[in-house]
Amino acid sequence: MSQIFPGEVFANTSDFDAGIRQLLPRYDEMLEVITRCVPSTSKNILELGCGTGELTLKILKRCPDAEIVVLDYSPRMIKFASEKVAKAGYQGRWSAKEADFGEWASHPEQFGIGSFDACISSLAIHHLTDEMKANLFIRIYESLSVGGCFWNADPTLPEAPVLGEVYKLAREEWVAQQGTTLADVRAKVGTSTTYGYSSQDQLATLEAHVQMLKTAGFTTVAVPWKYYGLAVFGGFKLS
């Protein structure tokens, strides 16, 4: 298997958009929920991990005055996303820094990023340890403007082993509905090792995420979407 960064999933970038939709139930619906939860009047948005730009494009379309700054350590993902953004005509409203957002959480003074109206992320933060997740949530909260929000889509740790089996079966059934098998999809997956602050999946329960957000300062925390082991969660900075 090819060596890849944590979070890149597939050895070949060309497999990502189709492969992730086969692997994760209701992927587009999950991203759409984040898009709806970000106020359309948002202007300055920070995205942690851009992937292939799918969430980026949805947000830029919904928020006509928004400019997005992305932190992603994967040069191939940045390239793939930037090509999509340019093709859609949004290149003037999108910029990317090849950087580890775990590093931003620990050393924000090195990045020159000011406050922002919203922070978004999908399928990236679960690669951090729980300690780093908590640190990142604090950094996000402190960097948000009053009234700003943070929304994240990620897999979560099953609340009990019996539910782990339920979630696994749901995913297998989803893959079968896409006309393939989990084995076939996983054959396209690369092997990742630790890079910067990220490693392979380091899942936390949804309850643990909610508690981390509250500890970080978010007084309004919500879970607007959950489908078995996948969830969209986040909150608002109201004062």
Strand order of the largest sheet: 4-3-2-5-6-9-8
SSE order: EHHEHEHEHEHEHHEHEE
Q: Could you say what the CATH topology is called?
A: Rossmann fold
Q: Oligomeric form of this entry? A: single chain
Shape: globular
| Distance from first to last alpha carbon | 48 Å
- Stretches where pLDDT is under 50 for at least 5 consecutive residues are none
Structure write-up:
The chain has 239 residues and is an alpha/beta fold. It has a single domain, classed as Rossmann fold. Helix content is 39%, strand content 23%. It contains nine helices and nine strands. It has helices at residues 16-23, 27-37, 54-62, 75-87, 101-106, 130-143, 161-177, 182-186, 206-216; strands spanning 3-4, 44-48, 67-72, 94-98, 116-122, 144-155, 191-192, 220-227, 230-236.
